[in-house]
Structures
1.
Amino acid sequence: MKKTIVVQRNDPNADDASNERKLAELKELAHAADYVVVGVLVQSRYPDRKYQIGRGKVDELAELVEALDAEKVIFNNQLSTTQIYNISETCKCEVMDRFQLILEIFAARATTRRAKLQVELAKLHYELPKARSIVSLLKKEERPGFMGLGGYEDSYEQDIKKRIVRIRAELLHSCKGSESLRSFRHERGFSLVALAGYTNAGKSTLFQSLVKEGTIVEDMLFTTLSPTTRSLTINKRRMLLTDTVGFIEDLPYWMVDAFRSTLDEIFLADIILLVVDMSDPVDVIRQKLAVSHDIFWKRTEGAVIVTALNKTDLLPEEDLQEKLDVISYLAPHPVMISAISDKGTDELKQLLYENLPKWEHSRISIPMSEEGMSTVSWLYDEGIVHTIEYGDSILMEIEARDEIIQKVKPFVISS
Ligand SMILES: Nc1nc2c(ncn2[C@@H]2O[C@H](COP(=O)(O)OP(=O)(O)OP(=O)(O)O)[C@@H](O)[C@H]2O)c(=O)[nH]1
Ligand SMILES: [Mg+2]
């Protein structure tokens, strides 16, 4: 974890509360990218329009970097190439802006080929307008390595343009890889549950708390497909739980596709587990829920939404109930939880179980033979075996997806 200092120039036209919220969001983003925020610097008086930060403040920042031994400075406002260059010279550490931070988060979370291409595309869009000044700065200063650029040449800008064209073409032809991921998982009898919600809502904490008794062997298979997916068994039903990137507001248009593609897992899920931070002010919760539903709308097919109202440990019971009353129309299948203390986890698991795609019950009789025995072990893998009796034939009571029942149709006695 890298130590970082976050810097914000307050918007003089916005009120204190909204400036504070912006800063809080930046800290949350830094946390999401695995940084530890060790210091904060706010520029409240409006400096010269040309600068995001006044001269004196840059010196103050440099002192802070040294005192706190920070490795990185993250600005909430967009910076020009020259600004990044100059500030990093003075502070003697890496400097980046909010957009680069968000790109870093997307890059870390992109699991499918399509998502990776989208993130790469967004990065190139970010770099393109800066290409010329990067090259001229490097030429002036003879400083290779700046902004991750090794050697440089005049064709840098051309090069970026070519890569953009190439990626666009590949994206056009790439089929949705995650579709096949879904069928692969379904073939193996797993239902898909995706965690969704704003950054800092507590998705990853809940993910860890739900999967802590998960089965390691199966996990090894799926971690290679997606590093943020683990298996989870509730009442013998097996599901795959996927942690996803948090929703982020105020994205520029060139980042929207990259953001959406990191959410592919959500759009393919059987259940969307929407995590909400109940310690937010109720207006903020309502706004976040509305945006979340907007993101799911039209992109999900028949997914059930379960709303996990998290961080209930931070509020008294009456406040929780009051907030729930206001937001209930935006919170389908609600359950109050506290991911850090495991409170409500059992109710949540039960709710997930109840909302899984329905499985069929059947009584079947399978001939006692080698082939019959392999069918039995296949059924153990694919469904739930409630009872089994060995006699002249093998009598079983099973529960499984319809496709599975169809395959043993000739043996069905009753359903
Ligand atoms: N008090 C309290 N804090 C919580 C709870 N759940 C999570 N947190 C804290 O909230 C912060 C964010 O939690 P994460 O699990 O990283 O949130 P996230 O939704 O995964 O965030 P992103 O990955 O950035 O989208 C952490 O500091 C957690 O310790 C909770 O139930 N109660
Ligand atoms: Mg997380």
2.
Amino acid sequence: MMADQFVDKCTVCKSESLGRYVKSVAAIEAGETLLLEKPLLILPASGDKRCTNCFRFAQQYCGKCLISPLCLECERHSDFDCKTLSDVVSSKQQPEIQVELLKKYFATYNILKCLLLYENPETRDYFEKMLQMESHLDKRRNTAVWKDHNRAVIQPLIKSNIVKRLQLATRCNEEFLQHICGIWDVNSYEIRAPDSEGMRALYLNASMLAHNCIPNANQAIDDQYRIKIYANRDIDKDEMVTISYTNVLMGTDDRRNFLREGKYFHCVCARCEDPTELESHMSTLICNKCATNKQEGYILKIDPKTWKCSNCQHCLKTEQIENILEKVKEEVFHAQDDIRHLEYLLTKLTTLLHKNHYIIVDVKQNIANMLRTIIRNSLQRPGRQLYERKIRLCQELVVLLHIIQPGISRLKAIALYEMAIASAELYRLRFGEDEISAQELQEYLRKCEAMYRESMRLLLYEPPETPEGQLVKSIISELRDLRSDIQILDNPLPEHDDE
Ligand SMILES: C[S@@+](CC[C@H](N)C(=O)[O-])C[C@H]1O[C@@H](n2cnc3c(N)ncnc32)[C@H](O)[C@@H]1O
């Protein structure tokens, strides 16, 4: 449970607008580890009931304390938690603990886990540090999320009488419990559960990093739920160290909404403030007036209410754009899982949206994923068009990622890896059909080798026990095969003389 500190090159500062944030006090090189930290606590995602011992889905309760959720395979959980809770639950003191209420509103257990940090003298300091985290209590007061927590967690917890028996009893009023709920909503990281679904983890130090949509640091979580923060580019002395709280493949409106609704701030980073999103055009529409006149015009958001063509100055209201996007999203939804339909839609949408628009990128990602499955599961060798299409999609994604994730990027590494696999297969196929010479094949395979190497370079800083870390092993094995092919092409076997 020990919380590890940031390296000496980082320090925690405070400002009016950001609260606490992390800054570099010396130059940092791309790839340098800035923090490796164990979680303070892991909790299920909202609506899930997970085993408090192993985090698989829970089907029963601990036979001793009666309220800790467990899976069918786990019989025990933390000795301290179990003893504290069973003492409380089995005590004859009045008013009686409403165990059934706690079970019915099982999210109450998440807050109990936080309160148990205080009960345990060994973790009490961590609990107090947790309380210093930002909860945006005032911005959340009486909002839908506040009311939800009140209904499903806080009131049942208070009515169950359990908090009255804890050492924290006098502090455990609605406001205090809302503060803890807010801390989790604002500061927790989404992590992968054993079944690959999501759960949440809280880290005392990693929670202090500010957000930027083009961050200079990446986060990675290993199989023991430790978080690693590393620089994704060189960071100058006195720069703010930032990570991204959002998905980089979302458009500005969606990123800003996510940050406003979940993290309670308005992002003013370089990407959000630029209507072209640093020329990536991930939210740009095509001006059909200009297109009719065979001109190129891009419709960009120039203020919260207006979108304007960069060429003919034609304006649209934000509601009009929202209606267009709503319809497009519906069409995409109906085309799900049908690769031909998605390809058709893509052709249709490119007259309406920029080729890098986030909806187009999403459709392309869907197609690329389906192609991966088709290529992998084909009994016969898949047709070359499939490989060509896959390569093109990966190339386009890599070009886009150079703009929106310019430094060390996991997504770029994966796209390069998939591009290298498909390219090597395609060139081998073309060689097999006598379409390219041995020398050309060798040149192409060398290009694939360069892609694999670049992919590996981008994944070097990922902890080995993550899917991306494991990918490095696959790349090494692919590289070995590739090099052996290149070598054979260098020294072809002598022609077999049949006579
Ligand atoms: C995970 S916490 C970061 C630590 C927090 N500043 C503190 O003092 O505990 C997230 C909160 O930090 C602030 N924050 C982070 N990045 C920000 C940014 N780019 N602009 C404004 N506020 C930001 C917001 O208040 C946000 O809800």
3.
Amino acid sequence: MKTVSFSTTLSQQIAKGNPKNRFPSPAKLNLFLYINNKRPDGYHELQTLFQFLDYGDWLTIDVIDTPEIILTPFIPNLAVEDNLIYRAAKLLQQKSGVKKGAKIHLDKILPMGGGIGGGSSNAATTLIALNKLWQTGFSLQALSDLGLQLGADVPIFVHGKAAFAEGVGEKMTDCYPKEKWYIVMKPDVSIATAKIFADPHLPRNTPKRVLSQLLTEKYENDCEKVVLNHYPEVEEILLWLLQYAPTRLTGTGACVFAEFDSESAARTVFQMKPEHFEGFVAKGANISPLHQLLND
Ligand SMILES: C[C@@](CO)(OP(=O)(O)O)[C@H](O)COP(=O)(O)OP(=O)(O)OC[C@H]1O[C@@H](n2ccc(N)nc2=O)[C@H](O)[C@@H]1O
Ligand SMILES: Nc1ncnc2c1ncn2[C@@H]1O[C@H](COP(=O)(O)OP(=O)(O)O)[C@@H](O)[C@H]1O
């Protein structure tokens, strides 16, 4: 992953003037994540607090009169048919019966398999943008239901507001955590969500608590111990950041984030990082930059 300078925050780019066919696709953090149960279908029930970051990818979309979905650039080791952007576009095409297609260009900034939801966010941005450009008229709830077929985290990005999520992530309650500044670091490993959920040592029975209680207790992530046991690269970065600020894993990793009350405090620590640590500084956002853009 490239370390990107702060002029690339989504809101700064939008403020500079944004073409009508260019849509942001922000990252998310799981500010806490608890696993309450394993369902008979193998999925795990969670309680998690999602917040967006003012940082992410961009999708540029041109509608075409033929039904193809043409996606560029090619991402190594990811077949176009498996790309969540392609799958989201095809799903909306199929459910709406629209005869048009699209050329979609992805400017990928977010690391993949990092627990910051890049793929899910790309899928949600595709659904929302094409629903607008194709004039297919689906409600946000209908797009969220479609999104859930693509991945458990797509609905939060369609929803576009920071939220406490339960179930596999589809039951959402709006929430307004402090919009802190974060250092997000991506260890040089990619972690498959399915692998962490399959680990026999994963805690799976954290008692469910009401949101008011969770917000007052120390925020934790039930996946963290298992991830640290498997990936010393994650532990190295987490321990370094913990010297300066509260730091946790997001999602099932591999990214970790440290929280700060100001941009300058975050940047001061970021500047001291060892050369081989990769990451970025970004502000939390309780409204997704995509929704900020579309509602302006
Ligand atoms: C747990 C979270 C928290 O944000 O992790 P991250 O992916 O962000 O790290 C997500 O909800 C993940 O969502 P997503 O990455 O879309 O997962 P999916 O593709 O739906 O699931 C991948 C696999 O992980 C397992 N899985 C996923 C979610 C869940 N609540 N229980 C599970 O057991 C299942 O084996 C599933 O086949
Ligand atoms: N457009 C996309 N961007 C990123 N990953 C994608 C995309 N489409 C499919 N994927 C697949 O989804 C996996 C998870 O991606 P991502 O959402 O970025 O990570 P995470 O779920 O850990 O936050 C990737 O490893 C990749 O195989």
4.
Amino acid sequence: PRAGLYEQFGGRPGIEALVEELLVRVLEDERIAAQFAEVDLVNLNDRLVEQICAEVGGPCEYTGRTMAESHEGLAITEADFNALVEDLVAAMDARGIPRRAQNRLLARLAPMHRDIVSP
Ligand code: HEM
């Protein structure tokens, strides 16, 4: 990613605040909340921070499972995926992240779609 993207996300503290905003929205989103009922949210929070930090070019290493491994058997639909992306955009808006920076992150997450949504 282009230099400066990590900074536009507010660095590590900005990304931590973003993931918190995202998880609050996901857990209140009746379309997908139930799918997170039995999830270790501390782990999910920490892995998402690492992942987003790495994807925006920050000095972080993603230590979680692959997207295919972690979403296998969860029967995630296209609609579920779109709902989560919508929640992410709302969280980025709430954090005041510029639209162009948002789109750069979304472009990096988009190819993960094939490993997350069930065939
Ligand atoms: C771009 C979209 C997505 C990204 C980047 C993403 C990222 C992640 C990450 C980093 C983890 C943690 C992996 C680990 O623990 O090692 C995870 C787990 C999980 N994700 Fe996603 N995810 C996405 C979409 C979705 C969607 C659409 C759903 C369902 C509505 C979903 C449901 C889950 C669940 C339930 C877990 C926990 C699985 C477990 O602990 O067994 N994810 N995801």
